[in-house]
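hi! just following up on the protien thing from before. the input was this:
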Amino acid sequence: MADMMTTDTAQLVERVLDDPALIFRGDISVTDFLAKAKADALSIGADMSKPKLRDAIKSKAYSISRMKTAIDNFGKDLTEEHRKATAKVNDVRKKL
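and the predicted 3d structure came back as:
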């Protein structure tokens, strides 16, 4: 069951990394996505006694950071597009 959840979560994360708009369009619930990502991250455990486990934790942390950055950058780009469109409308309105 845990392997299936990890696989499902990995596929979900991969889908979001491929198309971050899924989060912003509401195709994927942010709450569900974060819950699955958190569960996946916590599934590694916190045992830092062995180098292999420390490496797994580092790898997962890097993966989460990469995912967060990709989603955040897409969101910034999306809001920038809206700001530009709003500025154009406001420029026309000022001329009226």
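Residues 2-95 form one domain.
The radius of gyration is 19 Å.
cheers
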